[in-house]
Each structure stands twice: as structure tokens, then as C-alpha cells.
Amino acid sequence: MRKFSITSLAQIIKAKPTKNIRGFITGVSTDSRTAQAGDCFFAIAGDNFNGHDYVPEAFAKGAVCAVVKDTKGEKFTDDCVLMVNDCLKALGDFAGKYRQQGNFKVIAITGSVGKTTTRQIAYHVLSQHYRVFQAPKNFNNNIGLPLTLLGADSEHEIIIAELGSNHPGEIAYLTRIAQPDIAVITNVHPAHLAGFGDLQTIIQEKLAISQGLGDEGVLIINAELVKWLNGKWLNNHQLPITNYQIMTFGKSGRCDIQAQNITYNSLGSRFTIDGKQVLLPLPGAGNVENAIAAWSICSRFGINIDDFAKAVKTLPAVPMRAELLQIGTLTVLNDCYNANPVSMKNALDILANLGSAEKRRLVFICGDMAELGQQSEHLHAELGASIAQAKVRLLSAVGKFAKITAEAAKAGAEYDLQTKSFKDTLSACNNLQEFIKDYDIVLVKGSRVAKLEMAIEKLKELFS
User: pLDDT 10s per residue in the chain (464 long)?
Assistant: First the structure.
């Protein structure tokens, strides 16, 4: 971040200092383990930790001030401490003001799936022409988004941020902080149903990203979502600001930006945009949509389709998102960062494509899909039918809901489908050597809570 006055920070977050304040901060931290000299440490209390317990450690690492809850301030009277009513809100307020004072453009991306890959594609292309800062990892919540905005220096021209949500109201809050010039909705599918309840509420939540747009802003939206909305709802109910521009993208039908002549192979796809062929080295139909969304973004910054196609050819894999790995004789599709019904289906399509090209046994190490609420059992059973359709030969189910998936897949398969069920990832890892064979093609996917990256590491240990 750029150098920032502690006095100005105190004014923005309406803080009460414990002593006379002076000097500057050059960074922001919410984790004392990574605090650096010149940082302001925000002592945020979470479910499993309380930042106030680590304020001394942050100062020992070189932090020059700390933001603490008012009632905790008396503990740190010898240090430069700013006392506020709510540390998390203070972080958001600071980030919003920092964004207002910056000269950069902000791109904010939300959606049920594809946020991170769309961000990575757009970053890869735009960074060849502009000084771009992107969200570290998947920083997309009420801590991660402010840290993304505050991470940009005065030299940066563009920030690409993600906005995530698992309950109503989060996107509206985050977009007011980000105040994007361009807002993107990659798609909307059943996800985080435990917090939202139904698809209509999810649609409302994603569309709330438009609330942060100014009159000259652009909302880039998947054309499939527009099909789900009747014109009256879209124009009058969901999008109250009408002065910004709406741009649609998709693979079919009427939309402003469309990919055509799409062909898939086991390693990626080919398609044309405005007559130009694009070679995308990321597998799966979902990644084609992500690439079109990224092109919709890049086109707003004067990038031409020739430069876009040239840059996309050199895209690196996105870690733990349809990432193809060769581990000894195994081909492994590492897609274990997270999961919901549509991303599971996308991954199975990629697996089936790999199988048809390689003629090898297909294995699926499948974790639970989390936060699906009352529909969890039903959606896990539906996943079983997709697994049978993909001709998976061995299914390793990890978790209580994945066990339902295994039972449904076994019942629906018209071939010999072998299934194994484990209560947790550690148990599955301890048995991998019993059922994974040389030359298998293995998909590893589940929600974050399953921590299936442990299975990836075990496969490396066994087969590398």
C-alpha cells in the first residue's frame, strides 16, 4: 500500500487514540504471524482466534500501530493504539476511503463458480499492458476484500478483486467498499444454500454487486442469468441504478460478447471471438465461460482480440482448480479447492473427456459439498447420477454426504462401479494405496472443509 498518515487513519475510522499519534503506516495486517515493519495491525476477533491476544506479537514484528476494540485499549497504553467500536468495520471503512483516494480502476468479480479463474485470466492479460494488482489467493470476504484494496500501491492502475458471499447482504456491503468501475457476475447456481435458502435469494445477492457502480460503471453479466430474469424484474426490481452500462456474455443465444465454434479436448479448448481463434489451455466448458468473461473485462481497457488470444495461450494453471497434474504414472485432476453442484458437474465433464482420450480407468475421490442446507441429501444423490453418466469406475466417497453420492451412483450405474466410503480425508488417505493403481486418471474434488489437498499430497508420496 502507499504510505498513509496514522492521523488520517484515525480520522477515517473515528478512533480514539491511547496516546499522541504521529507517523505513517506502509501496510496493513490482520495476522501477527505475517506482520511486517510499518504495518497497522487490525485486531479482529474470529471464531477460532482473537486478534487482541496477538497485538504484542505484531508490535514485536515492527507494527507501528494497532486498531483494537475500545474495551481492550487500556491494555496497550504504551503503544500507538487506535480504539474503535468495531475493528472489522474499521478495516472496511479504511479500505473504502483508500479506494476513493486512489487513481486506480477497480474490477469486482462475483458468481457461484469461476471467480478466481476469471480473475486470473483477466490479470494475466491485463498485466501485459497495465500495472495490475489482484486479490492475493481468494481474498473475497469482509477481511479479504479490504486487504486486497489496501494492498495496491500508488503505481497500480487496476485492481482486480473477488466478492464472495454465503448469506444475504455480504455482496452489498463489499461492493460499497470496492466501488467498482466494472462489476462482473460469472454465473449463478445453487451454492451456500444453507445461508441463502433458494436460488432466487442467491440471484438477488449476486446482483447486489451493481449497487457499488457509479453512473459510468459497467455491469458484465452472464447471458444465462439474464434468461432466468424477466425484463421487468431485471430492469426495475433488481438493478435500481440504471445509468451504468450492462454487457452480456455467453456461449449461445443473444449476448454482447459470444464465443463460437467451441471445441474441447482433454487439455483445453478452442473457440472464436469476432472471428479470431482463441486457444485456451484450461480444460472444461466452465473455463470457456470464464475466458469470455475475462475478455469482456479486457475489452473495456482497449485490449484487442489478437492481443487477448496471444496472452491466453500462455495461461498458467490455476492451483487446485481443474489443475492437471502428472504424478508418476497417474494423471490427476486437482480441483479440490471447493465444490458445489455445478462445479462438480464441470469437473466430471473434464474427467470424462480425459477418459475418452486416454482409455484409462477413471477414479473420483469425492468429498462432501458443504453449505447446501436442507437440499444437501438431494443434491448429493443427484451428483451420484452424474458420476455414473461420466463412467467413473472407482468412487472414493469422503464424508457423510459423499456416502449418499456413492450409494446413488452405485444404484444408477449400468456397469460395474466400485465404491468405497470413508468418514474423513485422513481415513481415505490411509487407504489410497489399496485401490489407486498405476495409470489411473484421478479426479480429486470436494468442499474446502474436506481438505482434499491431503489426498493430493498422499498421491505424490505414493506415486512420484
Answer: 999 999 999 999 999 877 778 899 999 999 999 999 999 999 999 888 899 999 999 999 999 999 999 876 567 767 899 999 999 999 999 999 999 999 999 999 999 999 999 999 999 999 999 999 998 878 999 999 999 999 999 999 999 999 999 889 999 999 999 999 999 999 998 877 788 888 888 999 999 999 999 989 999 999 988 877 655 444 444 444 457 899 999 998 889 999 999 999 989 999 999 999 999 999 999 999 999 999 999 999 999 999 999 999 999 999 999 999 999 999 999 999 999 999 999 999 999 999 987 789 999 999 999 999 999 999 999 999 999 999 999 999 999 999 999 999 999 999 999 999 999 999 999 999 999 999 999 999 999 999 999 999 999 999 99
Task: Give the CA distances from residue 245 to residues 24, 81, 138, 184, 242, in Å, rounded to whole numbers and listed in that order.
Answer: 39, 44, 27, 12, 8
12, 161: one domain: no
Q: Of 52, 87, 122, which one is at a domain's C-terminal end? A: 87
Q: Could you tell me the residue range of the domain that residue 360 belongs to?
A: 323-463
Grid coordinates in use for 462?
A: 505414493
Flag whether the pTM goes above 0.90.
yes
| Domain total of the chain | 3
Tell me: do 113 and 212 sit in the same domain. yes
Domain boundary at 55, 87, 119, which?
87
Q: Say yes or no: 63 and 144 in one domain.
A: no
Classify strands 65-69 and 81-84 as parallel, antiparallel or unpaired. Answer: parallel
